[in-house]
Amino acid sequence: MIPQNSSFIRIKTNLKGNSMVESVLKWLQQSFLGNTWASYCWTLAVLLLGFTLRKGISMTLSRLVFRMVRKESENVPWSEFMRLLRPPFEFLLSLLIVYLAIQSLSLPSEWGFEPGKKFGLGMVVEKLFAIVTIVAVTWLGVRFIKFIGLVFKQKALLTDSKLDDQFVPFFRDLLILLFVLTMGFVALSRIFAVDVLTVVTSLGIGGLAIALAARETLENLFASFALMLDRPFTVGDSVIVGGIEGTIEKVGFRSTRLRTFEGSLVTLPNRLLTSQSLDNLTERRLKRAKFTIQIAYDTPLEKIKNLVKQIQEVLDTHSETSTEQGVVRLDTLGESALEIMVTFFVVTQSPREFNRVKEEINIRILEIINQEEVRFAFPSRELYIRNESRPDPPQI
Questions:
Q1: How the protein sits in the membrane (predicted)?
Q2: Binning pLDDT at 50, 70 and 90, where does residue 11 land?
Q3: Which domains does the chain have, with CATH numbers?
Q4: Quick one: the chain helix, strand, coil %, rounded to 5?
């Protein structure tokens, strides 16, 4: 049997506990700056929970999206996908967390934060938040387009054609431009309530002024389409344009990047590529080498004939030269030397292979000259001094 005093103490304790709960609930219902403390606690809880789980949620969403495109993106690693998509995912989630957290809060009316059509601080904050959201969605879309472009770029590397290597970056940039413009029109219509059709129509009225102001930009844009249609070169080709020699790295909307053989990167406007003569070195089936050998005038005629004959045989028998176009001739009777002209064509498009074959032939020519004991001639002049006896001067 429980004593009466014990029961009384237990009932009193329960009442005391209930009063604590009631006091907490009463405190939560109290207002501060137009909001209850319960609203502040809810906002804080959503922020803490949301930012704690943000990375995990973004990782999960990224994995779901990657699984959707995994079959088409086998050559692109997961790490590259995360590098592109995870930052915009986390930023967009942060905006969503903040939006959900502040839904339970309302600021005092005298602060001027009421959202609505009336201009005020509330309208400005509301528009800024909407703009940031549009920017976040645009960032995510641009990164996703870049990932798709990376997938097609890896597929293009597996083909023998270089044309797709040039098309993929071009159309990737084109899609990014169209997507950004679309999101810009969405922002104008949804956030600022601007009639997009009216804007497009007004562009027709001021189109002439815009075209004059952006004449060079438009020229470069149309030139880029001309380069895509005519295809005078592809990415990776070696070209000479405007006295600049190098390898094409990228063809963009406004300019083309060219890596010179010295290693520097040159950016050329596309309009220059369409208005100037362009020499595509990669399209050359053969590469020509031409030089002269200067030998001394006192070289016997038979040695000259043997020298010419043996060098011709070297050109004709080499496995990487064109047998139909190699020429060795006694070309010029110079001031101080007999000049033998050597011309041959190497069947290659690689500058490195061309230099290798040229070196092999030069070494073989030196061996023949040494075997025939022919002397090289150097620019020289002979000075003859005429000595005549003169009468002695008269004696005075």
A1: Multi-pass membrane protein
A2: very low
A3: 27-205 (no CATH), 211-283 (2.30.30.60), 287-371 (3.30.70.100)
A4: 60, 15, 25
